[in-house]
């Protein structure tokens, strides 16, 4: 990420490596046009490649004149490009060999292999997009639900970044007034502390709204964690299988999830729901089990919702009673499974052991499953998922916003505590402004950029 190689021309394969109709090699930087001229033989000879036009032709190895592939090539002259530099995209047939060969030819002509996220980093460094938009690129790529795509697209358009910049501007104005009070103490009377404190209210309100939106944002990004617990054989896996058979989402990997626990994902109410199935919560019999139970407890602590399953065809066991007592007051449901069998479970017994709402299902026949799904959505997304306003989805943003709010609270307290300590107020405001700048990228260190762009795939 060092500026010393910022003038290099970079190249990468921008599509997944594999057999497919089209694969794209992208080149960005001052040499892009030259590289295109060296490798590309247009079908009809042309004196020059016009910007933002698509040309049919062949890629030919300059040394051997070997034809590598028939391609469509576009040259886009900066600054009207993704990176604001000259960009060339070569759309070839997608195959490991042809893409690799094409990439090697661009490198032989003077490009350097791009690092992960480097195209987007250049878009950020050139000022075309702010850091929230750069992060949104990854968010769009990773979004798996309609709601997730919608919010990521909002971020990509820069709505969140713009709001943050407006708040930051307001704070800069306030800081200027505080600094005036510091520099010209004799005129301090003209900068009444109470008026300044009152002017902190609108930015604070905006910050609070953004911070509150993270609940939804986190749900969109990480999904809802539902833990299914209960003794062996009550039907936990059967329930999971039934839910999956109806609603399985296409998911390969979800950020922030632990890999050593089996998790399955479905979508409900537009949100990803991650199900994790665990053993009972009873005290350990041996060490291995102890470890398992420790993990289960950790998992339970993270859960957004708990489903505690009992077998309706048997009386309530003392262990289940104990588990339900341990669970106490949580968001969850006590689920009576196997209602298709003759019932031995005394429902009032169950209701006395728990304050959780009770629901009946049969994982075998599917009875009550729709109701269960509706209850999961009701309990966790009560007001429905709000995806219309500005929504914070990144933990990083949430942290900076929370710190920014804390600084402003501090500043407000200082201003309202009689004798205003202008210097301290200025410090708090400076810190608050810096926190916002970290989000938008207006004040951000190389280490943070490395971490953010390091998450990108090659070619993005
Ligand atoms: P787990 O140990 O809690 O995961 O339980 P399983 O899902 O493996 O189920 C244990 C046994 O109960 C299996 O033989 C299932 O076929 C059976 N089972 C699960 N759900 C039902 C149900 O709703 N009705 C009936 N009759 N059997 C069920």
Task: Please give a structural write-up.
The longest helix is centred in the middle third of the chain and has 25 residues, at 159-183. Helix 6 (159-183) packs antiparallel against helix 15 and helix 8 (201-222) packs antiparallel against helix 14 (395-416). The chain is an alpha/beta fold. The strands form 2 sheets. A 7-stranded mixed sheet has the order 3-4-5-6-2-1-7. It has a 6-stranded mixed sheet with strand order 9-10-8-11-12-13, with helices on both faces. The chain has helices at residues 32-39, 96-108, 118-125, 131-142, 146-156, 159-183, 193-199, 201-222, 236-247, 287-302, 318-327, 347-353, 369-380, 395-416, 422-440, 446-454, and strands at 10-13, 20-28, 40-42, 53-60, 67-76, 87-94, 112-113, 224-229, 263-268, 271-277, 305-311, 332-337, 358-360. The protein is built from 16 helices and 13 strands. Bound molecules: guanosine-5'-diphosphate. Residues 230, 232-238, 337-338, 340-341, 362-364 line the site of guanosine-5'-diphosphate (GDP).
């Amino acid at each position: 990420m060092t500026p010393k190689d910022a003038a290099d021309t970079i190249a990468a394969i921008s599509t997944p490596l594999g057999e497919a109709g089209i694969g794209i090699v992208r080149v960005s930087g001052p040499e892009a046009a030259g590289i295109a001229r060296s490798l590309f033989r247009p079908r009809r000879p042309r004196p020059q490649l016009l910007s933002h036009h698509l040309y049919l032709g062949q890629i030919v190895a300059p040394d051997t004149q070997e034809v590598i592939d028939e391609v469509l090539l576009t040259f886009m002259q900066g600054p009207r490009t993704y990176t604001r530099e000259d960009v060339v995209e070569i759309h070839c047939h997608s195959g490991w060999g042809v893409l690799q060969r094409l990439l090697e030819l661009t490198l032989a002509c003077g490009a350097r292999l791009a690092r992960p996220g480097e195209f987007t980093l250049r878009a950020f460094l050139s000022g075309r997009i702010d850091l929230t938009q750069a992060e949104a690129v990854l968010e769009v790529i990773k979004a798996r639900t309609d709601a997730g795509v919608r919010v990521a697209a909002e971020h990509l358009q820069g709505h969140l970044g713009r709001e943050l910049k407006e708040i930051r501007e307001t704070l800069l104005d306030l800081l200027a007034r505080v600094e005036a009070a510091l520099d010209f103490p004799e005129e301090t009377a003209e900068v009444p502390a109470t008026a300044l404190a009152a002017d902190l209210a609108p930015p604070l309100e905006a910050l609070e709204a953004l911070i509150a939106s993270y609940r939804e944002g986190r749900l969109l990004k990480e999904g809802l964690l539902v833990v299914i617990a209960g003794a062996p054989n009550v039907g936990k896996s059967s329930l999971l299988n039934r839910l999956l058979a109806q609603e399985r989402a296409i998911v390969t990997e979800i950020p922030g999830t632990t890999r050593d626990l089996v998790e399955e994902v479905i979508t409900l109410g537009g949100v990803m729901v991650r199900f994790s199935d665990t053993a009972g919560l009873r005290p350990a019999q041996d060490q291995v089990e102890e470890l398992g139970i420790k993990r289960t407890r950790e998992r339970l602590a993270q859960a957004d919702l708990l489903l505690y399953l009992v077998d309706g065809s048997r009386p309530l066991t003392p262990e289940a009673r104990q588990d339900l007592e341990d669970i106490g007051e949580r968001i969850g449901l006590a689920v009576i499974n196997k209602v298709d069998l003759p019932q031995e479970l005394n429902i009032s017994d169950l209701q006395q052991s728990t304050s959780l709402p009770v629901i009946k299902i049969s994982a075998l026949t599917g009875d009550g499953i729709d109701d269960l799904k509706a209850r999961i959505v009701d309990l966790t997304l009560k007001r429905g998922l709000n995806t219309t306003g500005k929504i914070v989805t990144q933990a990083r943003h949430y942290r900076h916003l929370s710190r920014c709010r804390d600084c402003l609270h501090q500043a407000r307290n200082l201003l309202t505590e009689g004798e205003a300590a202008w210097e301290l107020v200025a410090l708090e405001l400076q810190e608050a402004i810096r926190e916002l700048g970290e989000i938008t990228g207006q004040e951000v260190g190389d280490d943070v950029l490395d971490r953010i762009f390091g998450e990108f795939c090659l070619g993005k």
